[in-house]
Amino acid sequence: MLKTEELQINIGPQHPSTHGVFRMLVTVDGETIVDLKPVFGYLHRNHEQLAEQNTYLQNMPYTDRLDYFNSMANNHAYAMAVEKLAGIEVPERAEYIRVLMVELTRILNHAGALGFMINDMGMWQTQLAFGMREREKILDLFESASGARLMCNYFRFGGVARDLPDNFIPRLKELLTALPAFVDELERLLRENEILMQRAEGIGILPKELALSYSVTGPVLRGSGIPYDVRKAEPYSVYDRFDFDVPVGSVGDVYDRFLVRIEEMRQSCRILEQVIEQLPDAKGGHINPKARQSIRPPVGDAYARIESPKGELGFYLVSDGSQKPYRYKVRSPSFINLTPLGDMCRGYKVADVVVILGSIDIVMGEVDR
Amino acid sequence: MARLSPAELRQQMERDLPGALVEAAPLRVSQPPAHGPQPGPLVTDDILVAPARIVEAALYLRDTHGYAYLSDIAVVDYLIEGLFELVYRFYHPEGGGAVVLKTRVPRDEPRVPSLTPHWPGANFHEREALDLYGIIFDGHPYPRRIYMWDEFEGWPMRKDFPKQGDKYIGEEE
Which of A228, B5, B14, B22 has the largest count of CB atoms under 10 Å? Predict the structure, then answer.
């Protein structure tokens, strides 16, 4: 056995695989990872401190900037936390519109995330273009409803900003007929590709027990075989009315996380079809007419969480009775999902780090806050 | 297995961890305004634990009652009361609502035993609390700032942190 020396190298802060500014302090022995420490904060803007200087409503567009892929999901979690704090009721129709938007967000997030992940494996651009093509169609729908494609700022306390435009549902139906073919196509890209399979199978294994003790959430947790989904575990909004499955993996490797995301896209389509079915019978308008937007919630604290595409997204708010939150804390899934990165990478090769990071699916806007 | 109600859980914790639970006094959140409606104090019905016993209480929840998912550790700075409140949030992996443990430490000596050696998921939560609030977690394996750079002085999320001026940027000039 050749005697080797350990070497410390930096991956990042500027590295194409990190999708932002993120540094990994890696100790390598030859090509093998001995230790990995994530270093971040390059995008830190003290989001929470800024939010304490704003009124409750002023924070709504600001939550868009957390995870800029999933602005609708961020809006939902924040709106839920404020509604819990101030005791605002949401009409049924508004809840359906919210679910519709968040499930569309889940599809576009996974399409992008899987595209980027395969990109990191070295299959340049093709599948990413496929993913982005579908994402564009969903963004067009978002634009027709909210007026913005990325920073939607669509949710309000007690509902959503405006009702769906007339042609929204027909366009959504059209989209849903085309989506399954896209999902199958994306799945085939990995499953029928020997090279990509070799880079995904058995790589970055996160065992079940470790996943739970590391508090990871979302597709990473479910990829490790724990069927924990906030939509099922603590149903919020109208999720208890829909019939859908929670896909789980068996081994907890990159491949499992990929398959879980693929299956979640299919389940989101199922939920969307049920939303379209039930939406015409839903009572109420798009917003609770009694809900005020410039609110002064009573003194107290509240925490609300949703299953965002990346995991459990929660907001913890403390009110002192004024117009501004006294404390505003974001429990961001990307940030906590990075905790086990060192353990997931240990023993694998340097090239695998990029793939493992891609399979966690992080957005630096949310990690650094 | 049927889950315990919050009241039952509190009773069991009082029985199994004698002396760990503390009576939660109402907190004044901010200075009352000179006129207009007066906001009341913050009253909580979550379980308040003595800071020295927090690790024991958390592990008791995990090992005895199966609350094996630590979701969040939040810190709130109650400046007027002169204390920090740490809010630990636990969930059961089979679903259901949260169990919230709170603990209060004085602002001038914010020390809490670290949960990370027993529960690795607490790692980044605790480092964030250290970075932004200056909470010292005794026994944390890697107690370093997580967002701010290592040379940064001060704790940016504290309520008495200066919000204007460039005190910390180029102090020599």
Answer: A228
